[in-house]
């Protein structure tokens, strides 16, 4: 599948400082009735955004956040824990996020995110604390140099598995990467028939 290429992103942040945000909070189970990614942004963090009658909660941090300008989510530690739910990164991407930054991101969520065009970035505690304390700050994430630069000029580096990084830079998921190799695979098969 083709994804938007990711090389560098400069955006304002949206901060959810809560720890242990699980995949059921990101997208409640009652919304897992589709295999389409489209429209899931409307239900991301649904119970945090809307009351039981579907009206926006006045207290929601999502009020007034423009997904076009707030493309980086900064979350408390242990983000994405809970069940393996590919709908969680689908919903975050459909809402408008391209990256999640935390001091700790659950492994299964991280894997699902990378396969679906969402960059999970794990940073040190000091950088994480600075980001949590600065909602709306402009941050640059550079996948080429594996660096995060904060608005005050400070920054840090992060790690991403090499194959996942290549896929994000090329704008493909793992299957898309394989399909892009089809001419070379076919040439090899012809040469070794």
Instruction: Walk across the major sheet and give the strand order.
Output: 4-3-2-1-5-6-7
CA-based gyration radius: 18 Å
Q: What separation lies between the terminal Cα atoms?
A: 29 Å
SSE order in H/E notation? EHHEHEHEHEEEHHH
Question: What this model shows, in words?
Answer:
By secondary structure, the chain is an alpha/beta fold. The chain has one domain (8-191): Aconitase, domain 4 (Alpha-Beta Barrel), CATH 3.20.19. The chain is 31% helix and 17% strand. The protein has helices at 23-26, 46-49, 87-95, 107-115, 125-132, 162-170, 174-180, 182-191, and strands at 8-16, 72-75, 99-102, 119-122, 138-142, 147-149, 155-157. Strands 4-3-2-1-5-6-7 form a seven-stranded mixed sheet. Strand 5 (138-142) and strand 6 form a beta hairpin. The two termini are 29 Å apart. The mean pLDDT is 92.
């Amino acid at each position: 599948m083709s994804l938007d290429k990711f090389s560098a992103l400069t955006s304002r942040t949206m901060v959810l400082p809560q720890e242990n945000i699980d995949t059921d909070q990101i997208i409640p189970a009652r919304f897992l009735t589709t295999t389409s990614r489209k429209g899931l942004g409307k239900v991301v963090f649904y119970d945090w955004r809307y009351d039981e009658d579907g009206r926006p909660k006045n207290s929601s941090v999502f009020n007034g956040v423009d997904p076009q300008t707030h493309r980086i989510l900064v979350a408390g530690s242990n983000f994405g824990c809970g069940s393996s739910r590919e709908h969680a990164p689908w919903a975050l991407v459909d809402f408008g996020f391209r990256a999640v930054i935390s001091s700790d991101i659950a492994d299964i969520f991280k894997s699902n995110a990378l396969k679906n065009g969402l960059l999970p970035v794990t940073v040190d505690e000091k950088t994480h604390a600075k980001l949590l304390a600065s909602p709306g700050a402009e941050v640059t994430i550079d996948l080429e140099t594996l660096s995060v630069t904060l608005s005050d000029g400070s920054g840090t580096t992060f790690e991403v598995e090499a194959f996942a990084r290549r896929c994000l830079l090329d704008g493909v998921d793992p299957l898309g990467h394989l399909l892009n190799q089809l001419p070379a695979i076919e040439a090899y098969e012809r040469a070794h028939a």
